[in-house]
Amino acid sequence: MQIDDVDQRIIASLVADARASYAEIGARVSLSAPAVKRRVDRLRAAGVIRGFTAVIDPAAVGWTTEAFVELFCAGRTTPAQIAVAVRRLPEVVGAYTVSGEADALVHLRAADIAHLEDALERLRAQPFVTSTRSTIVLSRLVDSPTVVAAPT
Amino acid sequence: MQIDDVDQRIIASLVADARASYAEIGARVSLSAPAVKRRVDRLRAAGVIRGFTAVIDPAAVGWTTEAFVELFCAGRTTPAQIAVAVRRLPEVVGAYTVSGEADALVHLRAADIAHLEDALERLRAQPFVTSTRSTIVLSRLVDSPTVVAAPT
DNA sequence: GTTGAAAGTCGTGCCCA
DNA sequence: TGGGCACGACTTTCAAC
Asked: What is the residue-wise DSSP string for A34-101?
């Protein structure tokens, strides 16, 4: 899909505040509210904008422990298999196939160490997982929900 | 702050759709729109809800290359120093101090390999960085913007 | 792409239980 | 706390330009 820089600025506006009114966004990008709505509808239909979400403080909802787990998988494991498996764990907030020694990197978020260990156990129970290497997060320095190009 | 399970369900609603009206959320949690608004205002003021954002397809905006970079830092480097440095790079979408060999883990998102290399160079230019180890993301299996407890 | 008008919905402050 | 009401603003869909 073609995205011009007006679209970019609309996206940046929505990333900064997803509850902004179309009139408000229009003022920032010099467009009328109906014009903004049409562009947003088009961007949503095209899958560029996947949805709108609230950014929650993980600690406030009791999600205080995080880890990154490197996954080492059996020879003929496909990314799709890994994807299916990790999506079953609600503790998984991110998962990627990666270059290097490990086959995948899984980002876990849990209530506490015990919960984390429990999730890790379920992850290791997958038949294709040969071994794992965990790295506990000590503190969160940056955690942008999404970062998009230049603002207004 | 005290969060009851009505708050939890309101949060879950907003995470699922940040543009839902208060009346809509109220219908799901059996509350009137003003009551929902008051709770949301309170949650925002308390920092539980940090804001509302759009979930963007990174590929659609030209952000196609990702990497995780392990940072090895000089002896007396504080997390605050690392935080300041990584926040200066717009390519950083996440950064954490971690247990294990490395001191920090930085999640980068760039337009392409050249851009990634450029960002990495700027990261390595920090005086406290003694060395880095990069892991390129081959594919994104899961990338939840936020995951919160049980839905409605 | 724009404007302007229509009807319906929503946000939000205020008051009462 | 919660709900109800009221007013103004916003959304959304038209039409016509």
From this structure: HHHHHHHHHHHHTTSEEEEEEEE-GGGGT--EEEEEEEEE-TT--HHHHHHHHHT-TTEEEEEEESSS
